[in-house]
Amino acid sequence: MTAPPDALWLQWLLGALQAGQAALLQVLHAVGLVPTLHGQPAWPWASRLAGDTLLFDLGQARRLALTLGLLVLALLVAAVGLLWRRRRVWLLAVAGLLPLLAPWPQWEAVRVAATPASFHVSPTGFHADTIVRGHQLYRQLCVDCHGADGRGHGPLAAQQTVWPPNLAGPLLWRRADGDLFWHVMHGMHDARSGQASMPAFAGRLSPDDAWALIDAMKAQAAGQMLRQTGQWLQPVRLPAFAVRCAGASGRTSSTALQGQRLRVIAPGAGPLPTPDPRVVTVALAPASSTPDVPRSEAADCQALQPDAWRALALIAGDTDNPDALAATQFIVDREGWLRARATPGAADWQEDDLVCRAASDPAPSVAASVTRLPAADGLGSLIARMDAEPVRYVKGGLVH
Ligand code: HEC
């Protein structure tokens, strides 16, 4: 997992940049200055401020933070000046001077190319049925170039002006979701020759389809990274799906269980593991079964739709054979991130099962607390380490 910047101020700055620009866009839209595109306000400029470079260039980040601080101060001073008639000239003069004193950062260090959809937000909620639908669309429309595993080795790949990129790595997390959406709907051009590289799909896909594809590609990429490196190098959420829980009437969504640690199990041939008070056990419905049939009485909650199984099979790297997920278990932390996976046949949880980590090695204090636990309690050690290393991944100031 990418190491997060330690400095809290930097995370705050990146978050403020994103929120500030999104708010500006909403205001422009509210007063009718920008149109709606694909259901959301369109970003009117070819560039936007972004944190990607700032993560590596602290000098520029500090300049930007100072400049923004001084600009806010200038606005405040100007506002006071407008109200305080006797000091107005002085205060307005100071307000005018402050931006001149600011250590403005280099424009190139803080700007990235934008698309009209850069600030579009996915409406899907990373739902299991959207992921499954997106994956079907991917198989119909995208495999010829991008390949079944997303690595860019489809049969038509060699004929393209640009070789299709590896979508089975971190690329999808490096882009704003809105930019990915735009590229799927409107295609891409080779920067050097200007020729079309990635085709546009706006004629064939609805906006909802494109968002579903983005969820599916991320699920698939997570699974491929897990296969290649043994880790979810980018944090992935537990997809949302309908569940029915013991003691509760009616169905609810798996997202309603957030705040608790979950153990999600794809039932295999054997019995479910014994209940454990530290985790809420959620049993998946087999991918090949009919929906809405509760099966595993021993679980606290039962998934109602087989889509949850299929989506998790994708995230676990069992793209072509969802049945291989049988007897796999996952641990989800209180924030809803998928953190650990135990493969079929494992007797107890191991340290290596923590496949979504904040750091490659635990901090000394964490290591100490983990080893103090009795060796027999694999789940306990895992939970201790998971809680000590919450997911703090940031991308342009946003947790993804
Ligand atoms: C005819 C071949 C072809 C097909 C079909 C195709 N792509 Fe692409 N795709 C490309 C190429 C080539 C690129 C690299 C474009 C570039 O970098 O200029 C690309 C790039 C991308 C990217 C990277 C975007 C980015 O921001 O860098 C995504 C995501 C993507 N394609 C998704 C899809 C999806 C989803 C589909 C199916 C709906 C699809 N592609 C179908 C050829 C294709």
Summarize the structure in words.
The structure is a single chain. The chain is of the alpha+beta class and 400 residues long. The chain folds into 3 domains: 8-113, no CATH class; 128-229, Orthogonal Bundle (Cytochrome Bc1 Complex, Chain D, domain 2), CATH 1.10.760; 242-388, Glutaredoxin. Helix content is 38%, strand content 9%. It is built from 12 helices and 11 strands. It has helices at 8-30, 58-83, 88-101, 107-110, 128-141, 143-146, 171-174, 177-186, 207-229, 307-315, 364-372, 378-388, and strands at 36-37, 40-41, 47-49, 111-113, 242-245, 252-253, 262-265, 280-283, 301-303, 329-332, 338-342. The strands form 3 sheets. Strands 6-5-9-8-7-10-11 form a 7-stranded mixed β-sheet, with no helix packed on it. A two-stranded antiparallel sheet has the order 1-2. Strands 3-4 form a two-stranded antiparallel ribbon. Helix 5 (128-141) packs across helix 10 (307-315). It is globular. Residues 1-5, 360-373 and 396-400 have low confidence and may be disordered. Heme C binds at residues 141-142, 144-146, 156, 160, 162, 164-165, 167, 175, 179-180, 183-184, 188, 190, 197-199, 201, 213.
